[in-house]
Amino acid sequence: MKTLPQAPPETRADAAPPDAWAAARGLGGDEEPRPLAPARWDWSGVNRVLVVRLRSIGDTVLATPSLVALRRFLPAARIDLLLEDWVAPLVAGLDLVDNVVTVERGSTRARLAIARELRAARYDVAYNLHGGTTAALLTRATGARHRVGYATYPYARLHNHAAPPSSELWRREKTHSAEQQLALLGWTGVPVSDRPRARLVVNSETDARVAARLRDSGLDASRPFALFHPAAAFDSKTWDAGRFARVAEHLAARGMGTVAVVAPHESEVARALKRHSQAPVIAFDDLALGELVALAARAALFVGNDSGIAHICAAVSTPSVVVFGSSNVAHWRPWTDAPSEIVREEMACAPCAGYTCAEFKEAQCIRRVPVERVTAAVERVLREGAGRA
To answer: What is the tens place of the pLDDT at every residue in 350-376?
Structure first.
C-alpha cells in the first residue's frame, strides 16, 4: 500500500468555515444544498472518513463530486480516498482529500496488507462507492463504526448501513453515476442536492511538460486545438477513425488544430486517424494520467468516444462533443457545467453492456452516427463556449 499526501488542510479555501452546514451554503446556486435523508448518526463525533472507489478512470473522476460534498460538509475532518494504484495520479494535488491510499490492482497480497493498515487508521465512517466484492471486503476490514453501501451490493451484509436505490433517493428513474455516488452520502445526512460537478486539478510542472511536448510536435502555441480520443474499450463504443478524420478537417478549416490521444495498445487507431485525415493530426500514445489532465485543460474542445478521457475533459471544464454507441447516456454523459453535447443514434436495443452486439453482426449504434451530426454539435458547443467567454 502507498499513501499519497494531498494538499495540507490549511491550504484549502473551504477549510475555514467552522460550521459544516454554513460551509455547504451557496456553493451550488442560490439554494442551500440539502441532504437526501436525515442524518443516520451524530456527525459531531466524526473525525476520519474513508471513501472507497476502485476501478477505472471514469469511475475515479465521477467520485470527485462526492468528495466535494464531503469536504464542504466536514472541513476539519480527515478524508482519505482508496484507489487502485494505476489510477491514483488522476487526483494528485486534489485539495478535497487529505490522503490518497492506493492498492495494487489484482494483488491478493496487497489487499491483505492494506486491510491491516485500513483497520489501524480507525475510521469513523467508510463509504463504499464501488460495490464490487473487493471494495466490500476492504470496507468491512476498516472496522469503521459506520460502513455505508447500497442494499443491492453483493455482500451488502458487510456494511452496517444499507441504502435504498439512488433512483428512490433522487425520486427519478434514471440517475447518473455521479448521482448514484452522491446519493449514498446524501442518505446519511450529507448535503448533496446541488449535485456538485466533477473536479480535477492541473500540476504546474506537468502542464509545462505537456506544453513542451506540444511545441516539439509542431503545434503553434497561439492556435487553439481540439483534443480527440478516437479509441474506446469496446467496438460498440468506437466511432470510425475515418469519420473522426472528417471532423479534424472541419476543425482545420476554421483554424483549429487536432491532437489525438490513445493508449499504447490503441496506437493503430491514431495511425488510422492520421492516414484518413488531410488535416495535420498530432498523436500521443505515451502520456501519463497527469499529463492527460493537463492536455485536456489546454484544449479548446474535446471530441471523442464515451471513455475515461471524456470524463477527464468534463472535470477540467473543457467543452465537449461525445459520440455514444452502446453506452447508457443517462448514466455516463459528461458531468460538467461546460458546454457539451451527446451525439448518438437512437436504437431500440440501446443501451447495452457493449461487450458484443446481440442484434447485428457489427454494432450499428455507433456505426450509424453521421459526421454531419457531429460537426453540427461541434459548432453549437463552440458557439456556446464563445458566448460564455
So the answer is: 899 888 888 898 899 999 999 999 999
